[in-house]
């Protein structure tokens, strides 16, 4: 931990009120002065237990007694038939962590948690990534499964007690006369983790007393294998990826396992919730068997895979629905901003000054400048040697995917179409040599 934390860092302890997190808070409280980091705590009230509010009060009193700032977040978890309550609670918890303004979210997961997680993942048929040990430090973006990774800075997850057993934690708590709460659900054997903890592991320990460290070693071997698979995917991606997009023709040159590994890696990099192995293999088979002109569209989890002209596109379903639900009847005024965020289209316009190129500032300033979505029927003449043409045909000839054609902003001066980003500037508004001009770039949210 001392290798990770720099002086002046802000650490936020995940505090449930149980013995593990209480011991963690006690240790961090002692270390904060020595290592010169600021300390706060976060308590997530899932509202599942009837005692949940009492646990929040306990955490509040504990932090007050130590003058540690505490944030309490109360959740309402909606559960569909067949959903795992544990998984939903976990996803919501990490979503909350992702909203914190802190450098590290510090969690009290320990050696026994490692063993339980390994066995649960094994029983679920997880691959090497799922069987890999929890790392001491991890990017929070990897844990957040409810949304695509954004460019904003997220705190990192820190787990400093991964090599400490539950027994050692409880001994420390008793030795230092710490108080904690007990979650009654920990004894509920209907939860898989509790069944392993109370029934299976005590039996295993009688025959294999060092199973915890043995499991940890096995998990680390799996984590190494997972890293190697990622490195292989990166190497394969150099041959199959163009501007971050997979090309089906290049994907066909790989063996099926390597192609599957690359597709899985690409989906993770795009922030998609991975489908099951069977579903992933079916997606790959459809991609590999698709024709160049095929318009493949496969949805899963929070994303969809589309194929256009042999190029694979990964799109976020929630963002698409949000854009689709917004009205097409809107208009934004431009007053010389260098950057203009357009929430209606899910992207940002960049205006870059450039002498003798782009839009003529002189001509642009003759009438009010507005940004509007495509309505249909717009025409543009970016080439003096060719007649004015419909924007629809220009976009089609540019081989732009159909869904991207609908989310391009159009720039008008008065009622005259001036520019379609990526397509060109109308001849009547093009800057001449040495004249102040503006280059316009459209960046869609990823």
UniProtKB/TrEMBL annotation:
One biological process term in Gene Ontology: tRNA modification
Xref: SMART domains: TilS_C
Annotated residues for binding of ATP: 16-21
GO CC list: cytoplasm
Keywords for the protein's UniProt record, in alphabetical order: ATP-binding, Cytoplasm, Ligase, Nucleotide-binding, tRNA processing
Description of its domains: The N-terminal region contains the highly conserved SGGXDS motif, predicted to be a P-loop motif involved in ATP binding.
Function: Ligates lysine onto the cytidine present at position 34 of the AUA codon-specific tRNA(Ile) that contains the anticodon CAU, in an ATP-dependent manner. Cytidine is converted to lysidine, thus changing the amino acid specificity of the tRNA from methionine to isoleucine.
Family indicated by similarity: Belongs to the tRNA(Ile)-lysidine synthase family.
Name recorded for this polypeptide: tRNA(Ile)-lysidine synthase
